[in-house]
Automatic annotation (TrEMBL):
PANTHER family: ENOYL-COA HYDRATASE, MITOCHONDRIAL, ENOYL-COA HYDRATASE-RELATED. It comes from Marivivens donghaensis. One of its GO terms (molecular function) is enoyl-CoA hydratase activity. InterPro entries: ClpP/crotonase-like_dom_sf, Enoyl-CoA_hyd/isom_CS, Enoyl-CoA_hydra/iso, Enoyl-CoA_hydra_C. It is an enzyme of class 4 (lyase). This is Enoyl-CoA hydratase.
Length: 258
């Protein structure tokens, strides 16, 4: 499929989706989000793909939702169009692991998009922020909820109320990103993480993703019960037999996603 606002590259087992609106620092408009969701769904369906990476440019992962597009909308437009609501649901339905590779600005909807991914690897020039308050609005695709879960109430309030940016070092210290690497090494580091993920059983990877995400949704008791049920269910797979046999036979496992 031909996309205008993103570039999709499938190499070996990894699909890399690059946000590509350089003229607007990859601001997220309806077209970009629609194309992103379609590309994610295609990668999720593509049997060759075992891990997905979302990235931007060296200057910006994404500088937020597109302010020019939003500025003209009324409440009724937002409400009737369900602005960005469907895209959120489509994104959350992706089963394969998604890594965000963030360099430069990840602001507003850009920070929210990065947080929707399964984890974030940041370049040392990354800057995160929820500056919507400067525009007379607030975050609208999960920022108040997800950032608070990532970094806690105090820092989240600070970010949402002052609109200040957090650099990569602070983001790592606060638990927003899993690792920070020099900008020049971002591609290499993300590729190596994605390849590592791609070596695993997709069934186990999807189960891990599902269970970790559930930790944000349900009380601990329910999450523990859910994890246990999923853990037991993996014993119905060939990959569990293969993984454990390979360990005992001191060889590399050959997972077949069965
Ligand atoms: N939307 C549209 N265009 C943008 C955006 C954006 N978010 N960010 C940057 N651009 C454009 C600029 O207008 C500029 O275009 P032009 O060259 O035509 O004037 C171009 O990108 C380059 O930007 P700058 O010249 O401003 O570059 P600087 O390096 O000087 O500054 C900044 C970079 C600091 C990133 C600056 O561009 C900036 O502050 N951008 C806006 C950041 C922001 O406020 N983001 C939040 C947007 S609101 C949001 O994300 C809400 C999400 C929830 C929606 C959910 C709906 C349900």
């Amino acid at each position: 499929m031909a996309y205008e606002t993103i570039i999709v590259d499938v190499q070996a087992y990894v699909a890399t989706i690059t946000l590509n609106r350089p003229e607007a620092l990859n601001a997220l408009n309806s077209q970009l989000l629609g194309e992103l969701c379609s590309a994610l769904e295609a990668a999720d369906q593509n049997e060759k793909v075992r891990c997905i990476v979302i990235t931007g440019s060296e200057k910006a992962f994404a500088a937020g939702a597109d302010i020019s597009e939003m500025s003209k909308k009324s409440f009724v437009d937002m409400y009737t169009e369900k602005f960005f609501a469907t895209e959120g649901e489509r994104f959350n339905n992706i089963k394969k692991p998604i890594v965000a590779a963030v360099a430069g600005y990840a602001l507003g909807g850009g920070c929210e998009l990065a947080m929707m991914c399964d984890f974030i690897i940041a370049a040392d020039n990354a800057k995160f922020g929820q500056p919507e308050i400067n525009l007379g609005v607030i975050a609208g695709i999960g920022g108040t909820q997800r950032l608070t879960r990532y970094v806690g109430k105090s820092k989240s309030m600070d970010m949402h109320l002052t609109g200040r940016f957090m650099d990569a070092e602070e983001a790592e210290r606060s638990g927003l990103v899993s690792r920070v690497v020099p900008l020049k090494k971002l591609k290499e580091e993300v590729a190596s993480a994605a390849e590592k993920i791609a070596e695993k059983s997709l069934l186990a990877a999807a189960a891990a993703k599902d269970c970790v995400n559930r930790a944000y949704e349900v009380p601990l008791e329910d999450g523990l019960a859910y994890e246990r049920a999923i853990f037991y269910s993996l014993f119905a797979t060939e990959d569990q037999k293969e993984g454990m046999a390979a360990f005992l036979e001191k060889r590399e496992p050959q997972f077949r996603d069965r």
